């Protein structure tokens, strides 16, 4: 597959896509490597993961430049992504020595539990955040004693390939980490079907998540899904409107809106609606969309020409565009940020469907009950934000909104040391946080009789 730079439309590289037989061979090697890797002592496994994090840190700039070239991410964002991979590896490097079981009081003996690694884990990574999401599955899976096959997105495999090389450089045994570029319906589907793959961890669209869930059901394969979102950014009249409006563009336009956590539905209490819109306009127009190599750029291009056409279909001629940002013209898959508002806006596809681009929709609400009703009127439930100075309201709304990750007076709710995942059709299971290893182990219960 030829990889295209989204900002220049130039060919970056050509990467061979794995076949079904390539995938089978990779699984066989990973299966044989698992026996050796799980036997590595917890202390040594921790040391290797710390070294892996150090090697990634030594190559942050190189990884960031690859991300700019293949995904069009602004260089400052790409550096953060490489740094996040490093930090996640370091965080879970402490886990092998702390993967302890429980002693449970029982009559007539001793009951203990053990956390056993699953075996071969298939990690299917999306194109929107190639490095962080790679790390979110890779680090805990390795820490738990599994071997991992990484299937990166077809359009963004370069950083994953390099990370696989860095794993070997750090001293991880061969075939403990395998990077397998390939098409989803070929390599990805074979990982889901293969009897020697114990688990699939997938981040991507809800449609593909359903297909993988069905494929894994045949063998009752373990599965973690982090899927789509259509998240609400709820602004009450008593909030700091200046801050809420200033941060709203970042909450939906970061990464060119190609973010399952994007707060693309902005709900504003009716009494504050007009003032919020006045404040939102200059904030949107101040977003810097441009050359990803420029340190001042905040938003880069969309991933491909096809995706640009899809996003543009949500803002057709005559759409109620209340605010429009700017974007470069010429080569590159650029799309100017857009905010839709006004009569009939809730009838638009952009209100209900995940656009996965820099398009937001603003609607008014009356009170808490109305805000909850609107926010929950979606099959998705991944993230969201609540803006209010009322602490009681913040707690009430946090419990009432059906989403896995919420933030109050902020649009940031994803941290590697806290759990991440969605409600409803936004996912299955949880990633990250101190309990992530549970997703990559099976609990074994052992009763030892002490009776004579």
Summary, kept brief:
With 452 residues, this protein is an alpha/beta fold. The chain has helices at 20-38, 42-58, 60-71, 75-92, 130-143, 158-169, 184-193, 206-217, 241-253, 270-285, 305-312, 349-352, 368-376, 391-400, and strands at 2-4, 11-14, 103-106, 109-117, 120-124, 147-151, 177-179, 197-203, 222-226, 232-235, 265-269, 321-324, 338-341, 359-365, 380-381, 383-387, 405-408, 423-424, 427-428, 441-449. A seven-stranded mixed sheet has the order 12-13-14-11-10-16-17, with helices on both faces. A six-stranded mixed sheet has the order 7-6-5-8-9-19, with helices on both faces.
Describe the structure.
The chain is 38% helix and 21% strand. With 452 residues, the protein is α/β, with parallel strands linked by helices. α14 (391-400) links the parallel β16 (383-387) and β17. α1 crosses α7 (184-193), α2 (42-58) runs antiparallel to α4 and α4 packs parallel to α5. It has 14 helices and 20 strands. Strands 12-13-14-11-10-16-17 form a 7-stranded mixed β-sheet, with helices on both faces. The chain is globular. It has helices at 20-38, 42-58, 60-71, 75-92, 130-143, 158-169, 184-193, 206-217, 241-253, 270-285, 305-312, 349-352, 368-376, 391-400, and strands at 2-4, 11-14, 103-106, 109-117, 120-124, 147-151, 177-179, 197-203, 222-226, 232-235, 265-269, 321-324, 338-341, 359-365, 380-381, 383-387, 405-408, 423-424, 427-428, 441-449. The mean pLDDT is 97.
């Amino acid at each position: 597959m030829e990889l295209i730079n989204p900002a220049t439309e130039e060919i970056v590289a050509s990467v061979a896509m794995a076949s079904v037989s390539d995938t089978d061979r990779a699984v066989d090697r990973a299966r044989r490597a698992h026996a050796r890797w799980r036997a590595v002592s917890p202390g040594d496994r921790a040391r290797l993961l710390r070294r892996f994090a150090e090697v990634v840190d030594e190559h942050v700039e190189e990884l960031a430049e690859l991300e700019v070239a293949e995904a069009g991410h602004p260089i400052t964002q790409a550096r953060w992504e490489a740094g996040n991979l490093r930090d996640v590896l370091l965080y879970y490097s402490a886990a092998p020595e702390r993967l302890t079981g429980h002693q449970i009081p029982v009559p007539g003996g001793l009951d203990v539990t053990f956390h056993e690694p699953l075996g071969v884990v298939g990690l299917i990574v999306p194109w929107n955040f190639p490095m962080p999401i790679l790390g979110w599955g890779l680090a805990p899976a390795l820490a738990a004693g599994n071997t991992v096959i990484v299937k990166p997105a077809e359009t963004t495999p370069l950083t994953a390939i390099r990370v696989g090389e860095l794993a070997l450089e750090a001293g991880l045994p061969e075939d403990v980490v395998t990077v397998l570029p390939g098409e989803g319906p070929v390599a990805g589907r074979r990982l889901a079907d293969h009897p020697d793959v114990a688990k699939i961890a997938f981040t991507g669209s809800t449609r593909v998540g359903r297909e993988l869930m069905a494929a894994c059901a045949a063998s009752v394969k373990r599965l973690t899904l982090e899927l789509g979102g259509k998240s609400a950014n709820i602004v009450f009249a008593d909030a700091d409107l200046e801050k809420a409006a200033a941060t709203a563009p970042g909450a939906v336009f970061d990464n060119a809106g190609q973010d399952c956590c994007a707060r693309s539905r902005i709900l504003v209490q009716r009494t504050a609606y007009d003032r919020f819109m006045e404040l939102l306009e200059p904030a949107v127009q101040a977003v810097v969309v441009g050359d990803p190599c420029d340190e001042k750029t905040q938003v880069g291009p969309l991933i491909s020409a096809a995706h640009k056409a899809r996003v543009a279909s949500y803002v057709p001629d005559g759409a109620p565009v209340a605010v429009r940002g700017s974007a470069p013209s010429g080569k590159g898959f650029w799309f100017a940020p857009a905010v839709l508002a006004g009569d009939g806006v809730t009838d638009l596809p952009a209100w209900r469907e995940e656009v996965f681009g820099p398009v937001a929709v603003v609607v008014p609400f009356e009170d808490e009950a109305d805000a909850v009703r609107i926010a929950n009127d979606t099959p998705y439930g991944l993230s969201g934000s609540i803006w209010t100075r009322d602490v009681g309201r913040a707690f009430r709304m946090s419990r009432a909104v059906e989403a896995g990750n919420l933030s109050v007076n902020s649009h940031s709710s994803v941290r590697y040391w806290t759990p991440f995942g969605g409600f409803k059709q936004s996912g299955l299971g949880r990633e990250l946080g101190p309990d992530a290893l549970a997703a990559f182990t099976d609990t074994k219960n052992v009763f030892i009789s002490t009776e004579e």
